[in-house]
Amino acid sequence: MLDGMDTKIFQQLGRIAQKYPQIPWELLRGINFDGPLPVKRPELGPCWLWTKANVHGYGNFSQTKGGKGKSVSTYLTHRIVYALTIGKIPEGLVLDHLCERRPCCNPCHLEPVTHNENIRRSFVGKKLWLKEICKNGHELKGENLIIAADGARRCQACATIRFKKWRDENHAARSEWEKAYYQANKAKILARTVACNRARAQRKKATELT
Ligand SMILES: [Zn+2]
Ligand SMILES: [Zn+2]
After folding, report:
1. Domain count of the chain?
2. Which ligand is nearest to the CA of 144?
3. Quick one: which ligand is closest to 48's CA?
4. From ligand 2's centre to the CA of 125, what distance in Å?
5. Dist. CA 161 → ligand 2 center (Å)
6. Range 115-154 burial, b when 16+ CB lie within 10 A, else e
7. Distance 50 CA to ligand 1 centre (A)
8. In a domain, 174, yes or no
9. What's the whole-number mean pLDDT along residues 12-38?
10. Is residue 53 very low, low, confident or very high in pLDDT (cuts 50, 70, 90)?
11. Tens digit of pLDDT for each residue in 116-134?
12. Is residue 95 part of a domain?
């Protein structure tokens, strides 16, 4: 008898199986579709974590072909799920985990890149982790490095960009507001201007006369 949790998982598996009938059931069954969200890219949705055998942290899926265990093919789970849902992985490319979780096989978290690009990304990741660069790739040293009161290493270039963006947005918003105000109160503003001009002219006349 299934308890509540199992029923939920079962229903979810059913939905996924319906959406991707090309993924074999043995493969679907080994995936937790309710994984955590990627830390850096939560907009990509939850990770699909392979819960069974793995090698070097990557999911590892074996399939027996030809009935009586005659030939066993082993695949990396994320590669086979990608190939089944999105399509063939272009020749010579590797799949980069955008979520940085090796057992994840959510095709939306996988991007085919060259081996060099993959290495460059992990290199950038290491520099980011060591806070040698900011998340936008500016080097955190010399005048570009701000040490905050709490000891955090902040980027001057990013702070400047953020300030300029804020200034531009607020300026644009203000001039929009001013334009709208002018349109709504045109008659009143013009009347006041005319009155001011008249008053000024009269004052001038008065000083001329004395
Ligand atoms: Zn993932
Ligand atoms: Zn920066």
Report:
1. 1
2. 2
3. 1
4. 15
5. 9
6. eeebeebeeeeeeeeeeebbeeeeebeeebbeeeeeeeee
7. 10
8. no
9. 87
10. confident
11. 999 888 888 888 878 889 9
12. yes
